[in-house]
Amino acid sequence: MGSQKRIGKELAELMESPPAGITVNLVDEANMYEWKVLMDGPEGSPYHKGKFQIKLVLPTEYPFKPPTVSFATKIYHPNVTNDDKGSMCLGMLRPDEWKPSSKIGAVLEFARQLLSEPMPDDAIEGRIAEQYKNDRKHFDEVAREWTRKHAS
Amino acid sequence: MNIQDFLAFDSEANSDHDMPVDLRSLDFVSSYDSHLMCPICHCPLIQPARLQCDHVFCQKCLRSAITTFRSADSEEFPCPSCRTPTSHVSTNVPRLLINMCDEIQVRCPFLAEGCQEIVPRGHIQSHVDKYCGHRLMPCPDESCDKMTRKKDLQQEERCMHSYYQCSRCEQDIMEQDYERELKKHIETCTEVVSPCVASKYGCAAKIRRAEIAAHEQSCPLVSIGPYLESQNTRLNSLELTMRHLQQRNEIFEDGLSNIRSKLLESARASEGHLNSGRAAAEGERGRQNQVDDLDDSMNSSNVFSSNATTYLLSLHESLREEVSQMSHALTDLDARASMTIMNECLRIKEDMAHTNAAVNSVRMQVQWLMNPRLHNGARAGGMRTNASAAGTESPRSQLTSTSAPGPSQAAGPSLGPLRPRRPSDSGREGTKL
Q: What CATH topology corresponds to A2-150?
């Protein structure tokens, strides 16, 4: 299994020198395809001081197929579905945009970047995106409220 | 070549090695540049292939990428790095890239079997094929389906997988692991009879390892073990210091005997000089003492001090002797000096008497010679007073008789009456004699 070797390499790399604000673990030591990522809300965003748990699932065809990223912690964000799944819509994770040369570390860093700067034009939750664009102050308030309620 | 050809051409599968090494699962020892890494498998490139967009991948990775991304039987696929539509693959990559990837140091894949080799990646296949003694080979026994290490196989081609039982416990050990496993097993086997930890302190108990813990809890010798241990270390350290002191003592004794022998030599030398019987006796005793010292070092300091006094005494004796000699010599010299002085004095006195006599005789002669002249002078004075009235003839004749005849005498009589005799002339005559 070529995928396992590469996943193992990437996991070891991320555990040894994790990117800022990101901690990586396996959900189950025996299963390398499901990762549990803990992400700190970036400073300067309404998610600051929140701790968000992210589930990262890798396909067996990895790195030829993209991983899926979903928020286990509820988050008020235009690019994350406001449901139980909490799937995140990342451009680079779309199957037709995915490149085998992309690394999981880069995906996670990109996700954290998305918390700082949501992309309302590429939104999955249109209502939140609208609010983000037109009533930023109110959006920040609600996001902060959610962060305090769910992510601390 | 185009995609179809590339997919059909599988160089890795074509290798003629009986046991191809999976280069992707190797343990890389040296660090390598991330640019040498295939973006798909994240390993240093293995048999790289290049696309039109200049991206390089392992051929195997590229093949799986093509099969995954190519939409059914099309002539194109997107580059896994930049998604440029590509139809051509070149297996012709710079030699430099291959060399750099091949010289990365890796561990032999049979590390678990005991092979510690680290070789460049390019040599690992030949290492495993030819040189690695830890490589697993199928058991020579057809009926046995296990693997055995290559080095165990060499001499007799027989199955090494029969089990042997530990003579104490039930555990089985395979023959091929005999050397390595047996040692480990003996150290851990619970049935092995081993002595109590306090055996060195006298506990005679020898019990199976499983029960030894219980024994050690109750064994009194184990409980005083630490105390005995500390006593032991103390004793050892004391012994050490004692040895040190002994060595130092020996050094000092050597020094002392050196000094003593020197003193004896000098004492003997002074003895010889003085030739004193008493000193010789002392020296004899000293020498005797020295002989005794060799056996009895306890007395050494005592004897040494008595030796010193004898030495000093003899020195004192010799000095006194010298002083008396000096005083003798002094009196001798004194007498001699006074004798010579007296002799000299006598001689000088004699000489002086001689000279006195000589002077006296000369004086006598002079007086004798002077007398007629004085008489003459006195007579001439009387006549001149007389003749001043009578004439001047007689003084002129008197003058001729006393002094040598000269021209003045010839003219004298003519001048006589013109020059009167001055009173100073007569005075001068008187002082002449």
A: Ubiquitin Conjugating Enzyme (3.10.110)
B48 closest CA partner among B14, B116, B120, B99: B99
CB contact under 8 A, B42 and A99: no
Catalytically active residues of A, by annotation: 89
> What is chain A's Cα-based Rg?
15
Per-residue pLDDT tens, chain B, 433 aa: give them.
777 777 777 655 555 666 677 888 888 888 888 888 888 888 899 889 999 898 999 888 888 888 888 777 778 888 888 888 888 888 888 899 999 999 999 988 888 888 888 899 888 888 888 888 888 877 777 777 777 777 776 666 667 777 777 666 767 777 666 666 767 777 777 777 777 777 777 777 777 777 777 787 788 777 888 888 899 999 999 999 999 999 999 999 999 999 999 999 988 887 776 655 555 555 556 656 555 555 554 455 555 667 888 899 999 999 999 999 999 999 999 999 999 999 999 999 999 999 999 999 999 999 999 998 888 888 877 676 665 555 444 444 444 444 444 444 444 444 444 455 555 544 444 454 4
Q: Is the pTM of this model over 0.80?
A: no
Q: By 3-state DSSP, what share of chain B in percent is helix, strand and coil, each rounded to 5?
A: 65, 10, 25
**Farthest CA pair distance, chain B:** 209
What crossing angle do the helices spanning B225-274 and B300-390 adopt, rounded to 10°?
30
Q: What domains, with CATH codes, occur in chain B? A: 3-107 (3.30.40.10), 229-339 (no CATH), 341-381+393-432 (no CATH)
Residues of chain A contacting B42 with CB distance shorter than 8 Å = 5-6, 9-10
Which region, left, alpha or beta, applies to residue B202 given φ > 0 means left and ψ of -120 to 50 means alpha? left
Distances (CA, A) of B29 to B103, B118, B121, B126, B315: 11, 8, 10, 18, 87
- Structure token pair of residue B326: 């000096």
- A65: contact with B, CB 8 A cutoff: yes
Report DSSP state, residue A42: P
ipTM, 2 dp? 0.76
Enumerate the β-bridge partners of residue B48.
Answer: B58
β-pairing, B118-120 with B136-138? unpaired
Say whether A64 and B68 touch across the interface (CB within 8 A): yes
